[in-house]
Prior knowledge:
This protein is largely without helices or strands.
Amino acid sequence: MLELRPTCEHCNQALPPASSAARICSYECTFCATCVATVLANVCPNCGGGFMPRPVRPAHNWKNGNCIEQHPATAKITHKPVDPAAHTQFAAQLKTIPPERR
Length: 102
């Protein structure tokens, strides 16, 4: 189950569970859409993968207790700002390769 991390790892912007601005890689590294587009060039600084919009957990218990109330988001903040110069070098070799082929 996704942790639904509360903030962008780079800029620390709040990304509440229902945020449409949250982006995750396949390892659940979490960044805001702005950082993914302007700083990261859609290259995860932790694994080199691409990003997708993070799903939103249902707010209501529509079926079998599968909702944010029964399965809350984590409160643990992961704040690891990216070194823009180092990431630019790292991303240069990957950003032209589609994420599904990395």
